[in-house]
Design brief:
Oligomer: single chain
Structural class: alpha+beta
Number of helices: 3
Radius of gyration: 15 Å
InterPro entries: YezG-like_sf
Strand content: 25-35%
Largest sheet: 5 strands, antiparallel
Order of helices and strands: HEEEHEEH
Distance between the termini: 26 Å
Strand order of the largest sheet: 3-2-1-4-5
């Protein structure tokens, strides 16, 4: 994948995540999986965690998901995946952790789809590892 194109798409994804976040967020962890399926097309699933305020209180999911639904975010992640397919750099998972100082770190996963396969312990371990990055 062209490095500049990949960086541009990742920046769009990060911008869309921030745009979809609650007003007083301090840290966001976003993880998504994509898998090409011959019968049904592109399978996808995502999960997010968000911490609020200077005390970094975890978002209460009983009040709804931490990120508002965003077609632009899904489209940007799909474009990142499709571009990686074209360049034979096919990932199955993509995670990003962002803090409110503008710092972010990404991680691509190239095997297994624990979120799509409902393997709770495995995808939770990925989320925890991402959360520790920043």
């Amino acid at each position: 994948m062209n490095f500049l194109k990949k960086a541009e798409l990742v920046n769009i994804v990060v911008s869309e995540i921030i745009y979809s976040a609650p007003a007083n967020w301090t840290k966001i962890v976003y993880y998504t999986e994509r898998l090409r399926d011959i019968e049904i097309g592109l399978r996808n699933k995502d999960i997010a965690r968000c911490w609020l305020g200077s005390e970094k209180i975890p978002h209460n999911n009983s009040k709804g998901p931490p990120l508002r639904s965003s077609v632009e975010l899904f489209d940007a992640v799909d474009e990142l995946f499709i571009d990686s397919e074209k360049n034979k750099e096919i990932w199955s998972g993509f995670g990003v952790v962002i803090n409110n100082n503008g710092k972010y770190t990404t991680n691509f996963y190239y095997q297994d789809t624990p979120l799509l396969d409902n393997k709770d312990e495995e995808y939770r371990a990925r989320l925890e590892a991402l959360a520790e990055m920043i």
